[in-house]
Amino acid sequence: MSILPLLRRLTPPVRASWLRLQGRDISYVERVRFLQELKVHESLCSSFIPDGKFLVYHYGKPLLRVDKANTKDAIVWLTFTEMKNYYPELLSSYVLLDVSEEGKPRYSVQVGGIPSYTKEKLEDETGGIFTDLRLGLFMVNWQEAHILSRANCVHMWNKNNAFCGKCGAPTKRNAAGYSRKCTSCDMTHYPSSAPVGIVLVTDPEHQHIVLVRQPRHPQGMYSCVAGFSDVGESLEETVRREVAEEVGIEVSKVTYIASQHWPFPGSLMSGCFAEVEKQSLDIDKDELQDARWFSKEEVGTALARIDANPNLRLRGNPSGELFVPPPGAIAFHLISHWFKGTPVQEINQHIY
């Protein structure tokens, strides 16, 4: 017997009130309110699964069309029927992601347990490849990078919170996958993000910036200073401390620009500018491999280099010539808008 009729019979009055949104572009407010209803009402969330689209993960790797990198078609979205053909157990491993502009709920499914021949069939028939997430984030646009990040983090949060942090008893997830309730003490747990400050340090004349290189960066890549917030710190305090720790200078005039969710390990990265007179750097060699002041001319060349060849982020630059993170990272936007001279109050609207 098909499960579709059963799912669609759930909460018919409530479901009907939201079905009117289907098939047309809906406003941001309508999407947010619909998403909240799906998160908190178990049967409503379940009833819309047959109408949804599904992003597929296999052991933390999203299904992407590599040949469609940096286009709107990079993510492979499957219908409920298509998903059931490949993974009949999808109802036990899906999580809710968002609501599309057309009013369609979108979900993600982990299919790590499928046989290798099913995995190969899934890739062959969709034209997708299960891609390392770090690489995948730079193959999609800014908005879709957030979708990939959210899906991975909600999946991982559910995996890592199968037991209550208060009493140790098993927890049970809600239909959306956005909360887990302890089966013993009734405590409800919710996913959260770790705050990170990421900062582009510039001289007051805006002719030079500080970029740093970590050992794990591909050859030639430099990025912005970044680090986790300590308990009790403001964003401004985090930025000042991280710059002092990593490159040994004291910045002033910290200005917030924009933020980005990042799935390693589940961070909310708040991007800032900060100023300091150009001076010698005292590098923390335990954290960094290198750090330097770069001129506007050097930065312009580095931006042109990553724009011409985004795959540098994947394999590095054998020549060692400078390049910066590609557009999927907030560091790129901080660096590129500094180079363009975009007014600070306008940068956010250019990114989003």
Automatic annotation (TrEMBL):
Q: Which GO terms describe its molecular function?
A: hydrolase activity; metal ion binding
Provide the alphabetized UniProt keywords. Hydrolase, Magnesium, Metal-binding, NAD
Cofactor(s) the record lists: Mg(2+)
Q: Which InterPro entries match?
A: NudC-like_C, NUDIX_hydrolase-like_dom_sf, NUDIX_hydrolase_CS, NUDIX_hydrolase_dom, Znr_NADH_PPase
List the Pfam families: NUDIX, Zn_ribbon_NUD
Which residues, by range, are in coiled-coil regions? none
Q: Where is the Nudix hydrolase domain?
A: 191-316
Q: Give the E.C. number(s).
A: 3.6.1.22
Does the record bear NAD in its keywords? yes
Q: What class of enzyme is it?
A: hydrolase
Q: Which NCBIfam families match?
A: PRK00241.1
Task: Name the chain's protein.
Answer: NAD(+) diphosphatase
| Annotated organism of origin | Portunus trituberculatus (Swimming crab)
